Amino acid sequence: MAQELTTQETRDVAEANGDANRRAMAFTPAVDIFERDDTTVIMADMPGVAPGDVDVTLERQVLTLRGKVTPYAPEGYRALSSEYRVGDYIRVFTLSDEIDQANINAAFKNGVLRLELPRSPETKPKKISVKAA
Amino acid sequence: MPQTTFFPMNTVDPFADMRRMQSAMNRLFDGARSPGQTGSYPPVNFWASEDSIVMTSELPGLTEQDIDLTVQDTMLSIRVTYPAAETGDDLVWHRRERADGSYLRTIELPFRVDSDHIDARFENGVLAVEMQRPENDKPKHITIKTT
Fold first, then answer.
1. Residue A129, domain member (yes or no)
2. Best exposed site among A71, A133, B129, B133 by fewest CB in 10 Å?
3. Lowest-confidence range among A60-69, A109-118, B51-60, B84-93?
4. Exposed/middle/buried for A50, CB within 10 Å: 0-12, 13-18, 19+?
């Protein structure tokens, strides 16, 4: 029901948040998507993002998840070894038109964004009356 | 090669030996499937200053109770247990990318740590463990006498 708009490479040099000066590595957050009782749930891993730096935008059918990371770089420390890299997050989905856009729930806790997308009830086919001209 | 405890970034990786030992240890302990490289989950970064060394790791979706940190001599062990993913007959999975299960990783530090001086913080899914370098391990300034 939720389709990826494009295949996201793990490493995308992107302009996060539309700020041209911010050129950082943007990563694709890992997601779990499942569906239960007419509600689709998307859980996206965005560690290092503060709750205020998460951005969820829905434009028509396109859902964009963004997370801005404050990297861990304490004063007076130098990096010794690095097994993972840190960067902003972005992932884009195309939702089906069955999603009730007005009732989407979003919550962010411990670096995980949880989105609940309810399915709207089936719209009955509309019968259009034809006037005899 | 200078015999300091910490090497600068542009020479030999100080944890190269440690990683080899880790893979061996993790092969013993790791039961669950791990995303990415096998036997080295969760991935960690190390930072060092004059007085302390900090280990950071990204563990989204966990709480402090799910993380078990133990220290003994030079060995630091971290065990993480992810909460069970939602289950049910009425559940339909579309995509499954996030980590699941239990992981144990043991790291050998280049020095012995005092467990009384360890500060571990967990914020927004990032764990930061600060360990103080022992006193006698810090670089000492040696005054050179002129005769």
1. no
2. A133
3. B84-93
4. middle
